Amino acid sequence: MYIVHSTFAVPELKADEVIQIYRNRSRSVDQAEGFLQFLLLQDEARPGELTVHMEWETKEHYLAWVTSSEFKKIHELEKKYPDQELANIIPTIHKYKVVAK
User: Does pLDDT of 78 surpass 80?
Assistant: First the structure.
């Protein structure tokens, strides 16, 4: 299993808006080969810190997704988001290989 975390901070007052965006996400990744699970995590101590948690069968499945046209299309839309403060956020990415369960 391969896990990817994409962590970013938004102004606390905009956290609920961003959470709604993710609740209404396109879900196209759900159809990607090897995709297992998506979760949006909110830090309890810092409510403006959000983490996208994605689980994949393998690293190769993840890499196929991030090089797909569907991935590029979704991320181009993010850049056009009307709130430029949110559109310009750059996440910190962490990638993990699951080595024990």
Answer: no
